[in-house]
Amino acid sequence: MTATAPTLVTGATGFVGSAVARTLLARGHNLRLMVRAGSDRRNIADIPAELVEGDLSSPETFARAVEGCRYVFHVAADYRLWVPDPAPMMKANVEGTRLLMLAAQAAGVERIVYCSSVAALGLIGDGSVADETTPVREHAVIGIYKRSKYRAEQEVLRLVRESGLPAVIVNPSTPVGPRDIKPTPTGQMILDCAAGRMPAYVDTGVNIVHVDDVAEGHALALERGVIGEKYILGGQNFLLRDLFAMVSDIAHVPPPKISLPQEVIWPVAVVSEWLSRAFGITPRVTREMLAMSRKKMFFSSDKAIHELGYTPRPAREAVADAIAWFQSNGMLK
């Protein structure tokens, strides 16, 4: 392949994917972006790239997407914390990933960076920090999205072992920052808190990272990562109350004061799920979300820092950039 052979990015219209595309463009990559038909393309409107239509649920589109590519960044995923029917998400995230990997390998792609998630990793949950070596079993993975990412990652690792798939895996934690157009569940929390619409919360722990640092980590994984290895791309660990205090300070609003026990919220989650099924609206809280919140999702990025040269910025910058972007795009009055 020539030096100008394209680099494919799947999920490029999304939050993380568009950041990855911008980082690769700055590094001189000739971009091909796989986009779904009818998708919102505002995030890539100013990126010079070849667009090819494709969908994780339509594997017949993969061969055209990967044809002639030197590198593939697989960032696309169905990312929702609750779905009324888990089957389509499983098909897209697991089987779609497996078939895309096989298509890329058949096309002679030199290296693949697969965007997994810390959702696929082991979790200690008591405030201790987990890493790439923390043991994990599928039965301990809570939530359909997390299970789909766990299974997809296991498929990629299996293909590396059994067929020599040239893939490096990255595991972003919880990205925040600009261009969160949907927004993501974490972005929605920050938006609600910054707008003063969060009187109470259920406390837990999260790892916050700037989305542009996650994108930089993808590029470093291509350049310096070891095939078959996993690298957590995270930032700083926060209790939710401390994260909301920081958001409130940046947005100049009072922080939420009431931390509610799960027992109080559980009936609300049950009703919320019922309303979602009945009327097709996205629930703000579900039983799976509450179950996930029982464990603090704290992670270490030491491996990526030491082996890739990954250097995440302070989480406050990520939150400030997210709030500024929400304001400038009319999502936060």
Q: Per DSSP, what share of the residues sits in E-state strands of 2 or more residues?
A: 5-15%
Structural category: alpha/beta
CATH topology of the domain at 7-176 and 208-235 and 300-312: Rossmann fold
Q: Please bin the fraction of helical residues.
A: 40-55%
Q: Per CATH, which architecture of the domain at 7-176 and 208-235 and 300-312?
A: 3-Layer(aba) Sandwich
Strand arrangement in the largest pleated sheet: 3-2-1-4-5-6-10
Q: Note the quaternary state here.
A: single chain
**pLDDT below 50 for ≥5 consecutive residues: which ranges?**
none
Query: What is the overall silhouette?
Result: globular
Largest sheet: 7 strands, parallel
- CATH classification, class level of the domain at 7-176 and 208-235 and 300-312: Alpha Beta
Features of the shown structure:
333 residues; Rossmann fold; three-stranded mixed β-sheet; 15% strand
The gist of it:
This protein is α/β, with parallel strands linked by helices and 333 residues long. The protein has helices at residues 15-26, 62-66, 87-106, 144-163, 185-194, 211-224, 240-251, 262-279, 287-293, 302-308, 315-328; strands spanning 7-10, 31-35, 50-53, 71-74, 111-115, 167-172, 174-176, 200-201, 205-210, 230-233, 236-239, 258-259. The strands form 3 sheets. It has a 7-stranded parallel beta sheet, with helices on both faces. Strands 7-9-11 form a 3-stranded mixed beta sheet. Strands 8-12 form a two-stranded parallel sheet.
